[in-house]
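Shape matters. Shown next:

___
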Amino acid sequence: MVEIVFLIPFLTGVVAFFLPRRPGRLLLVLTGAVHLILSLILWAGWLEPVFPAYFAVTPEGLLSLIVISLLFFLISIYTTAYLKKSDIRSENIFTGSMLLFLSTMTMVTLSDHIMVMWIAIEATTLASAPLIFTHRSAASLEATWKYVLVCSVGIALALLGSVLITFAMDIGGVDVPVSFSALTTAARQLDPLWLKAGFVFILVGYGTKMGLAPMHTWLPDAHGEAPSPASALLSGVLLNCAYLGIFKTHKIMIAAGLESFSGTILMVFGLMSILAAATFILKQTEYKRLLAYSSIENMGIIAFGTGVGGLGAYGAMLCLIHHSLIKSSLFLTSGNILLGFGSRLIEDTGSLVRRMPRTFIAFFCGFVGISGLPPFGIFIGELLIIMGAFRNGHYVGAGIFIFSMCVIFAGFANHALKISFEGYRTTVRMEESASMVWPQYVLLLTSLLLCFWIPDIFSRAITQAITASGGVF
């Protein structure tokens, strides 16, 4: 029963709303552990969907699911220590919302029906909104409303795109279930005009949730105001869920022979996102918003690589996995920095290497990894994307891509060096509990390990996902 993987966190999430602090924290970690075990069982092929018309196990879904499960388990461990040191009112709402968020994100990875996917992605918005409003300040209220309104408009456009695809079915005389797998099989019979229109609306709609420019306006505020564990989930996992909706629709376009149309649009939106991130990263004043704009950049990289296809699509999938691991680590580390310095402003930090040495190691290694430097996996992914772009004749796009990466690295490095080494009014060391540091180390080491050794089952899933989307080498 595949559905049990998202039903369990849903039920425990409901229970968590009525529990005191300590049992709620324990339930958070236990649910994360159970979810990880169930995800591994699903990878072994021991679970089958009860409702195959609505849910299915796909290679790209499995990849996203295992990343979600591992991240949530480690983030839940960090969260228990974070909650002890931070002043969060209504902690039961926070833990309950995190578990419901896990349930809805899991549902996205297992959804095969195009409308169930839409419902699941909309549900992630509703489940995560209370996390952004946790501190109940005027700024968090504004960020929450912006998140809900902007993403809801985007989701409404995605719904219209889904309806347009059903028009493509009717006009083409196609009588199959409205699922991604069935539509991919019958894609050649779909009306190309309505299919193109549907893809555009779905890209804009889910692209809003993914954080692609110019629909990204909610993302810096939401990531900046949410508590660091919630920011880690929003950036490391939620954006991937929105990408899944675009990726699966792109597979339909490829099967219909319209890959040049969808690929070109993906590359354009990808480059727009990278350029937008480069512009704002240079003059950023808050480190959490800096990480948020870095997420916009990485979503642009993934969209560009997916549009390039071939090696680029493989590189995009690698970037998707490694970005989740590294960026989640960075957002958790930002929580330590916020607790240590009491400010989100970069100018109020400094000398992290002496003040919080263990946090510094996680922060600086995360900076190296997210900047696309070796030996971390984003370097390999970006290199494959550049090679794929040149191989497919996208010389201008590759040039813009490389130039933007250099600008972003320069801007990010300036801020990271300031936080890490520049002087600060005091060099007194802050207390760093093990549970607030080692989850970041595990995430970074996982990313590092996957650069040198990818398990066969993991490698096959990546290859199958890319091959199914037209990514051949």
